Amino acid sequence: MDLPYPTDIPGVCERIQQDVAEKVAQLTGLRVGEVVLTVRRLMTAADTSRVRVR
Question: Do residues 1 and 27 lie in contact, with contact meaning Cβ atoms separated by under 8 Å?
Answer without folding.
Answer: no
